[in-house]
Design goal:
Elements: H1 5-12, H2 33-43, E1 51-52, H3 53-64, E2 77-78, H4 86-92, E3 99-100, H5 102-108, H6 111-114, E4 121-122, H7 124-134
Antiparallel strand pairs: 1-4, 2-3
Helix pairs in contact: 2-3, 2-7, 3-5
Amino acid sequence: MALPGPKRRWVVVGLALGLSAFGGWHGARAYSDAESRHIFDILDSDHDGKVSKVEFEANKVDAFFFRNRKNPEDTTLRFEDTGLSRAFFDKADQGHKGYLTGLDMIDAIHFEDIDVKHRGYFDFNDLVAGLKTISR
């Protein structure tokens, strides 16, 4: 779904830790297979089974931030609303505000952390391995 300027920004400022579509997930566990697949599907916008750096940068906030936001009007995520490890959350929480924004996630999740094989893309298995390093 392509939205114009500011609307797209708020949608993008939404998704990296989460995806409201999974409702009922309370952050007590790491990413499930279905959640990981959904994140990958958002990142892999051309659906070729690989996520390029361009796709990742364009879609990473959509793929990771909205998942646990209970109120769509709230543009922040608290630790309790995520499946992130405390160490990753605290590192991502710029300014130690006690919550994350989409902008925090832009700086916190890097393509190179998932493309550890340095191929210029990553596949679903690479994403699953990357998610394990940041989740509880």
